[in-house]
Structure formats: structure tokens, C-alpha cells
């Protein structure tokens, strides 16, 4: 698919430049794009490391509750992301239990990652059911921020597109963020890497505005390199420069 430049320019002008975020009580929390950098805890770990014994155990429901409470208590963290993948419940319900524990153990805004794309509407239904008696629909004073990724290089897969549409139809702000493995999923040169990742973000931005003009969307890039000897990603001083870029 080729997206003409004029459509991209229209999408840039259409998307809001600031986004108001609230807490679970419906109180104003912060305005993205018009104040300081915001920080959160996360994200999607598979193991919990005991702070006393250093023992590693599969991430469980109780750990999601503990980490959400910890993030709630630390004043310099503004949001709680989906800290881990809950593994002590039936797999088909893991996203539901994890999201429930996040909402139950903090009033801070939530950045929500759902592993099973088919469960995403169910997770939002859960939030709406629990929230309806307090402050109405989720989109009125949003404290839920769904997080999505394209498939680098240059693919917005069906599941991501469906979840974007689901979030936008409920008037929720969403994060559309991508990630590089320079030399494998992106060109190895810094300029090539940033050009490809930016093209993906602009495609996601354009798609969001086609879904609904004025839909709030947050774009982000995480540039990283790939070591072909060890087959793992790594960060170095140049990675930090690329993040700043």
C-alpha cells in the first residue's frame, strides 16, 4: 500500500497535539504534549525476582497486584503499564486477570498491553463494566491508554489494526510504538533505521485518522541494534543518540 504524502500531511494536522489523561477517579492527571516528560513502570515481564532472596518465579497474579501497588505508592511514576504476563491462571484469561489487578490496585492511569489480540475487546468491556458506576464511559475522562506495535519492517498486521479501531471507537487515546533490530528488521545505518521507523509511525498515524479524524494517538520509537553473534539486541551510546533524535 502506498500512502500519498498529502494524506500523511492531513493526518498530522488532524491529530491533536495535546492529550488530557485522568486517573481512575476521574481527576485530571496530566496533559501529554504540553508539560514535562512522564514515566511509568512496566512492562510484560515473564518472571518475578524476589527482592529478598533473588529467586526467580513465573510472574503471577499476586505479583501484578504488588507491582501495581508499588507503582501507585511511588510519586515519581505517573502511570502503571502492564507489568508482567500473569501465568498462574488459565492462559485464555490471563489478560483479564492482569488488567483486573492493575485497576484494583492503583488509581493512576494505566498503559495496557494485551497479549491475546482476541481478548482486547473483553479487557475493555471489563474496564467499562467496573468503571460505569463511577464516572461513565472510559473515553469521557480516559485513564486507560492501550499500547500497540506494528510488525517491523513496514507491516500493520490485522490484529494491531483491529485493536486500534476498537480503542478509537471507544474514544481512548492509544500508543503506537515501534522497535528496531538494526541490521535485521531495519537498515543498519542510523539514518536508514530512523527513516523506516518513522515511515511506520506515519502510517499508523494516518490509519488512526482515517478511522476517526481527531483521534488521540501517541507515537514512539525505540531504536536498538542487533548483535548477530549472540542473536540479542543491545544498546550503546549511539542508541541513546538515536533515541534523542
Key attributes of the depicted protein:
single chain, about 240 residues, alpha/beta, two-stranded antiparallel ribbon, 7 helices, about 20% strand
Briefly say what this structure is.
The protein is 38% helix and 19% strand. The chain is of the alpha/beta class and 245 residues long.
Largest sheet: 6 strands, parallel
Mean pLDDT: 94
What is the beta-strand fraction? 15-25%
Number of helices: 7
Pattern of helices and strands: HEEEEEHEHEHEHEHEEEH
Rounded to an integer in angstroms, the radius of gyration calculated over CA atoms is: 18 Å
Shape: globular
Q: Level of helix content?
A: 25-40%
Class computed from helices, strands and strand pairing? alpha/beta
How many E strands? 12
Main-sheet strand order equals 3-6-7-8-9-10
Q: Low-confidence parts lasting 5 or more residues at pLDDT below 50?
A: none
For the termini, the CA-CA separation is 27 Å
Q: What can you tell me about this protein's structure?
A:
The protein has helices spanning 5-14, 61-73, 94-105, 120-135, 158-169, 190-211, 237-244, and strands spanning 19-22, 28-32, 40-41, 47-49, 56-58, 79-81, 110-112, 144-148, 174-179, 217-222, 225-227, 232-234. It is of the alpha/beta class. A 6-stranded parallel sheet has the order 3-6-7-8-9-10. A two-stranded antiparallel ribbon has the order 1-2. Strands 4-5 form a two-stranded antiparallel ribbon. β7, α4 (120-135) and β8 (144-148) form a beta-alpha-beta unit. It is globular, with a radius of gyration of 18 Å. The relative contact order is 0.13. The mean pLDDT is 94.
